[in-house]
């Protein structure tokens, strides 16, 4: 169902009331609402291409791109629509349209990447790791897999996310085991070079060793975190990994 439009009245109601009326009541109120003749999705497609053909990649183009997304045109489809139209309207206009479309569908791109990462492993990504967010640079997720006998969590890092330097303290036993299950990441101990991680890699982290771990800059990463039982165990969170140091990784 078409959304009732008020943009004309809001912007030009006093200055150009007739134009405002035609915009809100006729264009959007009558033309766009004729869904029995042409769906909102198809009207969005036509409108986006028509504006692109004129090189009108301004706020109105962004509005109609957003409407197209809300009316069901996917990220893959808009890319194909603009690619097809590029041969008829011109390459420079296509470039301008693509730049704006990438911004409008950016959130979908992140969701697509997350879904792809999930498909690569049997363990769930889990919920946003809000309880430990202050100790991470970037967004992470946490899925408890076992809280009996031995605590096991699946920890997932978005691209560029990593935890702060930290230490697992223990009077006896303790430490942590990481089992890499999907994506690509890094692990580093204090004073040593970073170690690239891939699915199947297993790390035994002794207690009292300062370290950090997380995703590669351009890739999602998940590992199982196995908490080794011990006596007098605690975690000490330290400083974040410096951005300039992290950016040296690939």
From TrEMBL:
Cited InterPro entries: AhpD-like, CMD-like, Cupin_2, HNL-like_cupin, RmlC-like_jellyroll, RmlC_Cupin_sf
Pfam families associated with the record: CMD (PF02627), Cupin_2 (PF07883)
Domain Cupin type-2: 155-215
Superkingdom, natural source: Bacteria
Carboxymuconolactone decarboxylase-like domain: residues covered: 17-103
A GO MF label: peroxiredoxin activity
Protein name as catalogued: Carboxymuconolactone decarboxylase family protein
Species in which this protein is naturally found: Faecalibacterium taiwanense
């Amino acid at each position: 169902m078409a959304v009732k439009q008020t943009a004309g009245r809001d912007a030009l109601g006093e200055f150009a009331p007739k134009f405002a009326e035609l915009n809100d009541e006729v264009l959007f109120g009558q033309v766009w609402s004729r869904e029995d003749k042409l769906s909102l999705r198809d009207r969005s497609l036509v409108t986006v291409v028509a504006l692109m053909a004129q090189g009108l990649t301004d706020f109105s183009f962004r509005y109609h791109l957003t409407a197209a997304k809300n009316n069901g045109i996917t990220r893959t489809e808009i890319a194909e629509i603009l690619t097809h139209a590029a041969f008829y309207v011109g390459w420079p206009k296509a470039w301008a349209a693509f730049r704006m479309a990438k911004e409008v569908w950016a959130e979908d791109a992140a969701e697509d990447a997350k879904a792809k990462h999930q498909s690569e492993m049997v363990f769930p990504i889990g919920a946003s790791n809000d309880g430990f967010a202050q100790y991470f640079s970037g967004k992470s997720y946490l899925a408890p897999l076992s809280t009996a006998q031995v605590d096991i969590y699946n920890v997932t890092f978005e691209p560029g996310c990593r935890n702060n330097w930290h230490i697992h303290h223990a009077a006896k036993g303790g430490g942590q085991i990481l089992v890499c299950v999907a994506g690509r990441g890094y692990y580093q101990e204090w004073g040593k070079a970073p170690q690239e991680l891939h699915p199947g890699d297993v790390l035994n982290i002794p207690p009292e060793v300062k370290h950090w771990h997380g995703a590669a800059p351009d890739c999602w990463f998940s590992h199982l975190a196995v908490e080794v039982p011990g006596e007098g165990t605690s975690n000490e969170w330290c400083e974040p990994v410096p951005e300039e140091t992290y950016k040296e990784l690939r």
